[in-house]
Amino acid sequence: xxxxxxxxxxxxxxxxxxxxxxxxxxxxxxxxxxxxxxxxxxxxxxxxxxxxxxxxxxxxxxxxxxxxxxxxxxxxxxxxxxxxxxxxxxxxxxxxxxxxxxxxxxxxxxxxxxxxxxxxxxxxxxxxxxxxxxxxxxxxxxxxxxxx
Length: 148
What we know:
By secondary structure, the protein is of the alpha+beta class. It has helices at 2-18, 61-64, 125-128, and strands spanning 19-23, 38-42, 54-58, 78-85, 111-115, 131-132, 136-143.
């Protein structure tokens, strides 16, 4: 019995360190994800992220500045977006004109370009520019099954 309990405890500690459960709020990732969906994200370094991956990132300060805290808020807001470009790839100025002002030809080290699947409802790199590596929390590995 003690061995089973020890294994369960070790498994829970591993999961807490490596996985993150996030609820989808808003329509920015429709039709891929809908409000109320929950997804598992695996914590990975930037080197483990590829274009097309869906990621969880900390919302940029410009997005949350001045927003009053909601009851139950425990930290910064989170965004779920699709990676469009990673370091070393061409800067997608056709999709993200804001980045044209920076004059870089390639996405700089430690930066990501992210876009929502539903542009009219998405706050993403088109408004805030690059997402720094320090704000990357993980890559979505699978949504939890929808109930209902």
